[in-house]
Structures are given as C-alpha cells and as structure tokens.
Design a protein that fits this description.
Order of helices and strands: EEEEEHEEEE
Shape: elongated
Number of domains: 1
Length: about 140
C-alpha cells in the first residue's frame, strides 16, 4: 500500500516520510493504584489509551530540518496538532507533544572552494535517519 501523504505537524507539512516511516502505537495509561498484589498479579484500571507516533525520514535538507524543529520545539506551545492517517485509514488530527529531541545523522555531500575566502565550504548538507517521537496529550 503506498504511503498516504497526509501529514501535518503544527501547521507544517513536511516532506513525505519513507514508506514504513510512520509507526503508530497505542500506549495504555494505568490508574494510580496499579500495582502487583500479594500473589504477584497485576491489578489496576486502564484510564486511557493514547496514540504514539514515531516518524522517520531517510533524508532532509537543512531547511526542512529547521522547519521541522521549529514546528515541534516551541517552549510556549508544548502541545500541538498532528494530522495523520490512523490504523483504520482515516485522516485524524490529535494533539501531541514530542517526547524527545530530533535525532539524525549529519551528512556533508559536497565541498566547494570559495575563491573570496580561500577556504573550502560544505554545501548541500543533508541529514539522514531523521526520527521524531510523539505522544498524544
């Protein structure tokens, strides 16, 4: 099944992630009284089930990475909307937060000689294996 291009993170529409680059999970949130009893059996109540998203791009430009970073790292806006296609195939929007920093590998693809400065400069810098994890509010 081809990747659905519906993905919007806090008003930013990033490039489409790789096929298989959107992992959707379901996280159970247990009540405060959850514990193991004297027979070592788990007891407690599930209060909610929240969605988790892990999104990976194989390659982003410097500009694309900067836009993604700005969309998810606003100190005055810790929760933000993400629109995606859920496990049932429906386009859905929920509020999320990023539970970690953006992780990536920096790649330098070309050096050019600057005749004005007399130095070699890195141009066409790309970032590979870019991953961000999100948890529903």
């Amino acid at each position: 099944m081809p990747y659905s291009k519906v993905l919007k993170i806090n008003d930013y529409t990033p490039p489409a992630p790789d096929e298989g680059g959107v992992v959707i999970g379901r996280q159970k949130i247990w009540s405060e009284n959850t514990k193991r009893n004297a027979n070592c059996k788990m007891v407690g109540d599930i209060k909610a089930i929240k969605t988790t998203l892990s999104i990976t791009w194989s390659k982003l430009t410097q500009a694309e990475l900067n836009k993604l970073d700005k969309a998810i790292n606003k100190t005055n806006e810790p929760f933000f909307p993400i629109t995606y296609v859920d496990q049932a195939g429906n386009e859905i929007t929920k509020k999320f937060y990023s539970d970690s920093s953006i992780e990536y590998t920096r790649q330098k693809y070309r050096k050019t000689y600057n005749h004005e400065t007399g130095e070699w400069e890195h141009t066409n810098i790309f970032y590979t294996d870019v991953t961000v994890n999100f948890v529903e509010q």
